[in-house]
Amino acid sequence: MQSIPIKNVGDARLIDAFQRTYYYLRLSITDQCNFRCNYCLPNGYQPEANQPHFLTLSEITRVAQAFANMGTEKIRLTGGEPTLRKDFLAIAEQITQIEGIRQVALTTNGYRMAKDVKAWKDSGISSINVSVDSLDPKMFHQITGINKFDEVMRGIEQAFEVGYQKVKVNSVLMKQLNDSEFNRFLTWVKNRPIQMRFIELMQTGEMNSFFQRHHLSGKVLADKLLAEGWELQQNSLTDGPAKVFKHPDYMGEIGLIMPYEKNFCASCNRLRVSAKGKLHLCLFGEEGIELRDLLQSDEQQLLLQARIFTALQGKREHHYLHQGDSGIRNHLASIGG
């Protein structure tokens, strides 16, 4: 593992051993979630006994500052459900003030969106991803365990009312559950500026049998889109892993996130920090590298950046999902997806 002298760490950028550059941080601020999605937390949020508290506002600010110093331009606030934190707006406001951070994004289940989206925008949240796994209220309830479909849909419309030009909507693609709704989703985005993103169901430790029953390759949808005149777009530096398709007859877009596709990891540009202060180099990987002991004072910034850089040199070239190895990840809410 490559290390660097502390005196030179201020010049270090987030580049790994395979020359991939990391502009994008997914920062989880809570593991807690109030939905019970069948592909993630079917039994609801279960707090661990004697678990450490989630990162404080000052700790969050210090880790965001360190990443900004090393070239990060985009930070996405994730969870669990990040808006469950009482200091959520203060967190967003603090991060938007950090020099070098050009985008502060949010991933949410949308349950508070209709009520709070204006405050989110005022706090500096520049883009929103909201989960909608079905356009059928009964199926939405079946998948999420929560009867909040109408509230979430109102929240999306309210986002446009308060000035968001585009909303990204995430749907986990699941055979025998919502795969028959693809045309319905296409109709929904035809006259709305929504990027509808279908995410392949991913295998995790607690969900092996569910994965075997419901996994469907996104290639099925990609082939359909191309056959119907949709065109694949070029991603920018801070975009996530979605392959985005546009069609001249549609205001909306379609995104496909296909982690089982060959060379999926070649364009990786994002790192993750958990709500308890661990750096995760891959969504499907190791136990994580502890950062919290270096988040206690501003004077630790150079040491923090050195630890992040050194850890990054050990990032693997790719995940091993094709071999059925999802690492230690029991569910995605534990790391912010």
UniProtKB/TrEMBL annotation:
GTP binds at R26, R76, T107, K168, R270, L271, R272. GO terms for biological process: Mo-molybdopterin cofactor biosynthetic process. Signal peptide: none annotated. Its EC number is 4.1.99.22. CDD domains: Radical_SAM, Twitch_MoaA. Keywords: 4Fe-4S, GTP-binding, Iron, Iron-sulfur, Lyase, Metal-binding, Molybdenum cofactor biosynthesis, Nucleotide-binding, S-adenosyl-L-methionine. Binds 2 [4Fe-4S] clusters. Binds 1 [4Fe-4S] cluster coordinated with 3 cysteines and an exchangeable S-adenosyl-L-methionine and 1 [4Fe-4S] cluster coordinated with 3 cysteines and the GTP-derived substrate. The keyword Nucleotide-binding applies. It comes from the Bacteria. InterPro entries: Aldolase_TIM, Elp3/MiaA/NifB-like_rSAM, MoaA, MoaA-like, MoaA_NifB_PqqE_Fe-S-bd_CS, MoaA_twitch, MoCo_biosynth_MoaA/MoaC, rSAM. Coiled coil: none annotated. S-adenosyl-L-methionine binds at Y39, G80, S131, M202. Its cofactor is [4Fe-4S] cluster. Residues 17-242 form the Radical SAM core domain. It catalyses: GTP + AH2 + S-adenosyl-L-methionine = (8S)-3',8-cyclo-7,8-dihydroguanosine 5'-triphosphate + 5'-deoxyadenosine + L-methionine + A + H(+). SMART domains: Elp3. [4Fe-4S] cluster 1 binds at C33, C37, C40. [4Fe-4S] cluster 2 binds at C265, C268, C282. Pathway: Cofactor biosynthesis; molybdopterin biosynthesis. Monomer and homodimer. PANTHER family: GTP 3',8-CYCLASE, MOLYBDOPTERIN COFACTOR SYNTHESIS PROTEIN A. HAMAP family: MoaA_B. Catalyzes the cyclization of GTP to (8S)-3',8-cyclo-7,8-dihydroguanosine 5'-triphosphate. Belongs to the radical SAM superfamily. MoaA family. This is GTP 3',8-cyclase. It comes from Rodentibacter genomosp. 1. The gene is moaA.
